[in-house]
Amino acid sequence: MKNKVLVIDDEEKLRKLLARIIALEGYRVYEAGSLAEGIKTMGSDDIDVILCDVKLTDGNGVAFTKDIKQQYPFTEIILLTAYGNIHDGVQAIKNGAFDYIVKGDDNEKIIPLLSRAIEKVYLQKKVKQLEKQLTGKYGFDTITGESKALITAINLAKKVAPTNTPVLLTGETGTGKEVFAQAIHYNSARNNYPFVAFNCSALSKDIMESELFGHKAGAFTGATKDKKGLIEEAKGGTLFLDEIGEMPLDLQPKLLRFLENGTYYRVGDATQRTTEVRLVAATNRDLQKEIAAGHFRSDLYYRIAVFSIPLPPLKDRQTDIPLLAEHYLKEYAAKTNKQIHGISKEAMLALKLHSWPGNVRELKNVIERAVILEDGPMLELNSLPFELQQTAISSGKEQLVSSLHLATVEKLHIQKVLSYTNGNKAEAARLLDIGLATLYRKIEEFHLKP
């Protein structure tokens, strides 16, 4: 697809000559004899670069540049003038012009300049495309579920995302706190800046302080050079502190000071530094109880919990289990190149009956494992972990009686015996008290894994 260039000049002969030269370089060229004509062309096609005279009958190209850049930020403008002066040149660049050149003297510069402008346009559009992909990947629409508790949490996150207010995400491990943190970041004005995540339970106090605030060379053994902290890495963006309830008590005042006035010190450095980030914190602990026990500072709590969002455990989102299971089935079937098109009634019932102490993270892992094991077109009960199969079989619920027919129980029992014999079919047939040929038939019928 050809890049599109618009030439605006009220001198027709010069305009047509310039258009001809540019067209010979492989560009698609549009012409306009006035700013009004140029604006009309801009509205009807996606122009990449404008070559515009400074002095036109209906306006000035320098002022025109400012208006066009506000309306079409990805379009680059090269201004051409018969009489260049420093003031106009400086103002043109301030208004967003790609360059400002003198006609005649700089004619040989036009094609290389145009090429560089086109390259800038391409890079800007590519960056914007990647930003959209990130927003799509981490947006609120990617959070799967329709339960009332989840929708409430999403709506709260959507309201706070455009602000700079600190957010505290609470809930059990595996409820998707980092997913929410990323969605808040990528749906804020900070989405062009870094999202930096740190788990406060992962490191000792000294290492954690160095990771967060950075250190000066020689601050401790092994510190051979100055190091930026994550707070500095996240400048202008979002710092996500997961498991903040695990942060050592004597490190908490330093974080509080930073949150209150944006100042901090690297480890071993006497120079005060400043930066600005938005904090999103998460915890699976009851921080009020931690405060009462003397493990967490109340002043830090009130600083980070300005806007608190509780995330519901999966056991309180029963209606979301089928949606999540189908979502992860599609994801992992695609990754493993398997043609698995759905989940059987028995397998889905087992998923619904499970208590999911590990929440969404556990469900995701279960589906990934099941997809790897499954060889048939449907994800079957016997591909799920044994404890889920047992829950389904032992449950006395009426829904189970109608769903788990005799063939399913038989299939599970045969699979259990095959597992016990480590795939020894002759031994399995003996224990089942059936012929070996019958066992082979059952294995094929039920898509069992010997």
How would you characterize this protein structure?
- This protein is an alpha/beta fold.
- The protein has 3 domains: 4-131, 3-Layer(aba) Sandwich (Rossmann fold), CATH 3.40.50; 139-312, Rossmann fold (3-Layer(aba) Sandwich); 316-445, Helicase, Ruva Protein, domain 3 (Orthogonal Bundle), CATH 1.10.8.60.
- It is 48% helix and 15% strand.
- The chain contains 20 helices and 18 strands.
- It has helices at residues 12-23, 35-44, 61-71, 86-94, 110-138, 148-160, 177-186, 205-213, 230-233, 252-261, 287-292, 298-304, 321-335, 345-353, 359-373, 386-394, 398-403, 406-420, 425-432, 436-445; strands at 4-8, 28-32, 49-53, 55-56, 59-60, 76-81, 99-102, 167-170, 195-199, 214-215, 227-228, 238-242, 263-265, 272-274, 278-283, 307-310, 342-343, 378-379.
- A 5-stranded parallel β-sheet has the order 2-1-3-6-7, sandwiched between helices. It has a 5-stranded parallel β-sheet with strand order 9-12-15-8-16. Strands 4-5 form a two-stranded antiparallel sheet.
- β6, α4 and β7 (99-102) form a beta-alpha-beta unit.
- The longest helix is centred in the N-terminal third of the chain and has 29 residues, at 110-138.
- The protein is extended and about 100 Å long.
